[in-house]
UniProtKB/TrEMBL annotation:
Signal peptide residue numbers: 1-21
Keyword annotations: Signal
PANTHER family assigned: PHOSPHOLIPASE A2-LIKE PROTEIN Y52B11A.8 (PTHR34228:SF3), PROTEIN CBG09474-RELATED (PTHR34228)
Gene Ontology molecular functions: phospholipase A2 activity
Organism domain of life: Eukaryota
SUPFAM superfamilies the record matches: Phospholipase A2, PLA2
GO BP term, example: phospholipid metabolic process
InterPro entries: PLA2-like, PLipase_A2_dom_sf
Protein name: Phospholipase A2 domain-containing protein
Amino acid sequence: MYVVLLLFAVLGVFGVRTADSAEEPEWSCGTDAVSHWLSEATIEKSCPLLKGAINQCCMNHDQCYDDQRGRTFCDDAFCNCLVDAAKPSEECSEEDAPTFCLLVREFGEAAYEASGSNRTTETPLKMILLTTTALPRKVAVQKTAIPKRAIGAEEAPWIGAVFERMDE
């Protein structure tokens, strides 16, 4: 009996130490120090046991952006990954995953474009041939007069002084 208890105690201690000493991957959710910190703090508060799975969604999303697989494709895959990863936690699946998804869809364009700028791309030969063999035609462009003011000083007296200086 004592041997069994001692065995469980030893396994429990080593199990805790093994779990504590195992290094988790660097947090990948967010685009800068502030968003990294906020997203990690949010997940640690709401669903700490799902942190690894959610971080994996972010790592996959970053890789998808790096591979330039299409922003919509990457964002859809990310949102689906979050839905699956957050299922075990009601709070995480109802609040955090939808918020992360919304943020990526609304503000991910700059990150997607920045990921693409680190890659070298080749221009297809067909495109080069089309652009170098077709000579531009001279086409008369009809110029229209640009109105000086769209709004008169009478309608917006607070900007009247600005327009008067421009007229001089």
